[in-house]
Structure formats: C-alpha cells, structure tokens
Amino acid sequence: MKKNIEQLSIKENISDTLKNMVGVDNLPIEYQANFDFNFFNWSKNFLVINKDQKNHQIVNKVILADDNYSKNDLEKLSGIKKNFSQVKKQCRFSADLAFCYLKFHNFFDVVEDQISADHLQIIDDFERVRLLLKASNSYLGVTKNIVENIAQNISDTNSNNLSLLLLTRNNNLRKFIDLYPEIGIYCENITKNIDNKIINRIDQILTNINDQKKYTRLVIELLQYLESLNQPKQSASAKPDNNDKIANQEVINNVENIEKNLQEVVEEDQSQEQQSQENVSESIDLEKFKIIHEDREDLTQSIIQQSQVDHSQIAYKNPYKIYSTKYDEVIFPQKLVSKSELQNLRNQLDLRINKLSGISKKMHLKLKRKLLSKRNTYLEFDSSRGVLDRKKLSMLVTNPNLEEIWVNNKHHEYQDTVLTILLDNSGSMRGNPIVISAMACEIIADILQNFAVKTEIIGFTTADWKGGRVRKLWEISNQPQNPGRLNELRHIVYKHFNQSFKKSKVNLGLMLKEGILKENIDGEAILFARSRLMQQSEKRKILLVISDGTPVDDSTTSNNSQDILTMHLHQVINKIEKQGKIEMVGIGIGHSTDEFYRNSLTIKNVEELGDAMIEKIADLL
Description:
Structural class: alpha/beta
Number of strands: 13
CATH architecture of the domain at 339-369 and 414-620: 3-Layer(aba) Sandwich
Helix content: 40-55%
Strand content: 5-15%
Shape: globular
Number of helices: 25
CATH class of the domain at 339-369 and 414-620: Alpha Beta
Largest sheet: 7 strands, mixed
C-alpha cells in the first residue's frame, strides 16, 4: 500500500509541476510503461497537438513515463537503486523534454513538406538541442536533468551527431557541460574531423535559436551542403565498369545517410594528406568500397573512429607507416559492454581486490604518507592577513596604515601537475597482472585527486586478433609489401582528466572482460597519451607506462620487418624524452624497460607492481 501511495505521489508531483510550468491547469497527461529514458530517442509524438479556430495550439495529450516498473525495467535505469526518489529523477526527464516542446516549440511553424524523409530525424535532433538551449536561459533544473541524460546516453548515439556541437558552443550550457567530460570529448573529436566551413555553419545555426523556422532552414542547408561535398567525389571515382553499381548502392534511403556523407568527407581529407605514402590512396578507396557492404553498426562502433595522434610533432629516422586508421578506436567502457555488465565486472574486480586487501591497504597508506611527508611547508611574507611579523613592528609604529606586515604558514600542494597512467591491455596481462594494475591505478587516482593532481587512466590494445578488418582490406588490395601497422587500434579511456574517481571507478572492471585483452602496439599508444597530456594546461606532465613485454602484433610483424614496432617505440620515447615537455616513466613486469626509458623500473614478481607504481609516483611528486 505504501508503495502505491509513493508511486501516486511521484505521478502527481511531476504532473503538477509540469502543469504549473506550462501554465495549463487542465493539461491532459497520460502515462506510458516501458518508456525509453534516452534523449536521442525521445519523440515529439509523445505530444498530441491540434489547432483551435484562431490557429492557437491546443494540447490534446501529453505522454509521460510511468513509474510502475518491473524488475527488468529497473535494471535498465542506469543500474539505479530501487527507491522512488531516484526513479522520480528518471521520470522527470520525460516531463522536462515535454515542457521544452510545449514552451518553446511551434508545432505548426514547421517546413516538413520541404524536408525529405532522410533528413527528418536529423532535423529533430537539432530541434531537441535548440529547445534545450532555450531552456538554459531560465530553467536551470530542466537543463541540468536533460544534460545529465545526454551524458548518460552519449555513447549510444551516432559518432557524428552534429547537433551536439551546439551544446559546447553556447555560454549558458558551458557550466553544465563541464560537469560531464564525455560530452566535451565527444564534441571535440567531431570538431577535429570536420571542415571549418561546417563549423561556421553550425555557429550560424546557433545564432538563430530564437527563430524556429530560420533555424530549421539553416539545418536543412547544412545537410544539403554535406551532400554537395559528396557529389564530386562520387563522380570522380565513377568508372565504366562495376563502380557505377557501387555508386548507386551508396545512395541509401535512411536517416544515417548524412552521417555517412560526413564520414566520407573526413576520409577524403585524410586520403589527401597521405597521398605521398605508397599504396595508401588505393587502400582508402578499398575502405570506402568495404564500408558500403559493412553493417551500419560497424560505423558507430566507437565514439571516436580514429586516434587523435599528432604524428607531425614527432620526427622519425625511418618513417613508420600505418596501412589504415579507419577502424582505430578511442572508446569508453560503456560502449563495449552494457551498464549492468560493467557493474558486474566491477563487482568481480572488487572480489579479486578483497583477496588482496592486505596489499591494498598497505599501498594506500604508503602513498598517502609519502605525499604528506613531501608536502613542504614554507612562510609567505608581506601578506595582508596571518600572524604579525615581529621584524616589521618598527615599521608599523612609523606607519600605522601599513597592511603587509603578516606572515602565513603555507603548504606546498602538488598543484600544476597532471598524470597519465598508460596500461598495457594485451592478452599476456590476464590474471593477477591486470588485477593488481587496476588496483594500483585505483589507489593512485583516488589519493591524488585529494592532492589536486589530475589523472587519466588509458588502456591500450587492439580491437581484434590477426589484423582484423585492416588486414582484410590489405588482402583485398593484393597484399602490397611492407604495408606498415596492420591492425586496428583500441585505446580505452577508463578515466578522464576532469572526471572524479568516484564516477570512473566502475570502468576499471572492464579489464576483466573476456576478449578485451589482445595485442599491444606501444609506440602509437604513447603518442595518443602524449597528445592528450599536451592539451592539459598544467606545467608539469607525467606519463607512467606499464607493460609486460615489447610491442607485439603478429599481423604487423609478419608482413614488415620484425622490429618495426620495437624501433617505432624506441623512436617515440627518444623524441619525447628529448623534447622534455613530458616526464616519462616505464615499469616493466617481468622484463627490463631500461633499453626504452631513461627512467625505468623492472619488477620480477607481479605482486611488487603496486608498490613499484606508488614508489615511482611518490618519488616524482
């Protein structure tokens, strides 16, 4: 009985709030079970609107989420606990979006008769963002709820959702977006892969959020512009044989067509940059051929379709070639497994760590004590507050208005420092090595955030064994000699720099997922971590690399010189260390890293790994 009363209370609370905000006391509200709590899937069809004789909008029905959930439904709610205060927060999302449409959207001031079916979904995406931008001016609670929902579901949306760029380019929303780094990273990586002309059009759309019709027209013009960019490429690649059939297949009547066009524009830009490399242009053409016949799910497998590595800043004696970056991934754990499975993996990791509780507590105390002991104390003179400086008493007598006569006791914190832990996620790390690595990362990230040190944890591996889809492309192109790196990279971001450890803790459980740990290509992983470190504003940048062996990728080494990956790793580390902008530390598990890193440590027993990591961090700081 109590449960039913609480459920009724939730419905009444949300209904009354929505009626008050809209200003309609008799607002007809219905509730729907199995509601999809996802910003990207919400539809304005949940609102039934008609006109009166004066062409005013009349609300016939508003459909909101029902809170009477089964056990399975509750498990879908982002793994939340089964209490109604949290369920209420999820239910409010449907009311918040409904409010935005009722308040700011004119259901009859649209140009749908001029919009093709292919573009309707994209137009709706932009309109939802426009309404959120409008709400951000006055309705902060509504804005926060919707932005939080976007962050929770962003890994499920298409990797080229241009409408989300409006969020990070609006001042009102910036304070909300900063709370969820995954949104900023998502948008940042889209921005890096598109032309400035597209960005300019996005900015023009942003300036017209108060004019729904003009806003929609500008969105349509953007989509037409993207299609026009694709036309010359299709005609240039057309040949009198089977290519005509391929071109026809590219015209797919579905909503994702525009995103594909955008991705192909990015590929075209990349191919122009790589024309000087042997066989690369041929391989990219083959990639386009392959994409047409791939599952659409493959196109959205990762949040970022390629690594954002700035190779231009690193010079090599012998150029290191990459056959294709098409399938490279920078990916979040939530994209690889469901939220419930990720939580189960985290629980398994906790059980494994509990068996090592003695080691864990010892490591935790050791790092904390070392950091506290190294936190220098110094005196700050000429301050405007604090303890009176006796040496200045005579000055105070002659000048009673003197203010800077105080001394303060100050602690030197570890500020202006940022740390990346780059962790080998190869198959040989299975078992205790990966568990102890995860435990050490956890302890380091948890403690360092209390000392104002930002941390990032990245795992590096490959998405497949034996070269994966990249090798298939190479085989289709008659297997040219010395193709370069011949596999698809996977960089897993377990924790962002701006993410609290509490929010990222669950992500470390992914390391126990069967099939995640595969091959390791260390050189490019270090370049990736370096590029992210260099984007941080802190003066001191530290990169800690943990690996249990030299780089290994059978597909690459069997079709190039045997030492291609090892030589590349040497060159990358040597160049970064010479530049001096990043302090590098290598920890080798069971093998020496002295040949690679100036500052290195080798441990013979995996149980020593945690202590070694903590010792190095404490010494560096």
